[in-house]
Design goal:
heterodimer; A: alpha+beta; 3 helices; 24% helix; B: 126 residues; Nuclear Transport Factor 2, Chain: A; globular
């Protein structure tokens, strides 16, 4: 199954599979959860329209960071899924223009976020995320 | 306190805030409530009520979903400052100032009362 569960009781398992695909960079599977007119708003307010823009954006993120998303909690109705997530980004190169702020190679950033996923005919049509807590773990400069 | 649904409890809370019914607001809070967002950190119900006495909050629920013991809600808030608050954590607030924002809020509940309220500001149009 590569789409959101229509039964709220199955939502957590389906969502875990979605996040696992996202963590693995398996965007083909991740995109199978999206409606054709998917809109995704990331924590800083930037909105991504459509599967192609989402894949382009996160392909770029994966090129400069190692990102792991953990699902802390997830529950749903038939039309809305709420999730509490924690993400850690590890910069694998210097990223002066990273979306959350400049990162140097080796820096880590931890984000605790709340997100709502609007479900339309069994697929995510809108994803909106907020940042509850952001913690930077800067690599100490050896010099 | 736990003979009503979580949604009913949240609706009562919203209604109490919108009517400035502070005893009604307090009735929704467990004594060990922890209420926090990006600007305010109230480590107890007493601290939260002190906050409510300084500012009037007018919430509107935009989206809601829950599971036993936890609510997730998208809420539009309007804040009006009741009296000068020079020591507000996010900066001084003059009497009469109003602010409006949308938050994603997660509320933990036990025995029909709120034990933890965590809000994060939503930075795009709802």
């Amino acid at each position: 199954m590569t789409q959101p569960a229509t039964n709220p009781a199955d939502a957590a398992a389906a969502f875990a599979r979605y996040i696992a695909a996202f963590n693995a960079g398996d965007f083909e599977t991740a995109c199978s959860y999206y409606a054709d007119d998917i809109r995704l708003t990331i924590g800083n307010g930037r909105e991504l329209h459509g599967r192609a823009e989402i894949v382009r954006f996160y392909t770029g993120v994966r090129a400069v960071t190692r990102r792991t998303i953990n699902v802390l909690d997830c529950f749903a109705s038939e039309t809305l899924l709420a999730a509490e997530l924690e993400s850690e980004f590890l910069a694998v190169t210097d990223v002066p223009d990273f979306t959350s702020g400049p990162m140097r190679q080796g820096d880590r950033m931890y984000i605790n976020s709340f997100a709502f996923y609007t479900i339309d005919q069994g697929r995510f049509s809108r994803i909106r995320a907020t940042v509850f807590k952001r913690v930077w773990k800067r690599l100490v400069d050896p010099s | 306190m736990n003979d009503i649904s979580q949604r009913q409890r949240l609706d009562l809370y919203v209604d109490a805030l919108n009517r400035d019914d502070l005893p009604g607001v307090a009735a929704c809070y467990a004594p060990d409530l922890h209420m926090t967002d990006d600007q305010v950190d109230c480590p107890s119900a007493e601290a939260a009520m002190a906050f409510h006495r300084r500012v009037a909050l007018r919430p509107e629920i935009l989206n809601y979903v829950d599971r036993p013991g936890r609510i997730a809600a998208e809420i539009r808030w309007t804040l009006r400052v009741r009296a000068d608050a020079p020591d507000h954590p996010a900066g001084p607030l003059p009497k009469g100032e109003t602010r409006s924002w949308v938050s994603f809020t997660i509320i933990d509940m036990a025995d029909g009362r709120f034990t933890r309220i965590r809000s994060a500001p939503y930075k795009a149009a709802p």
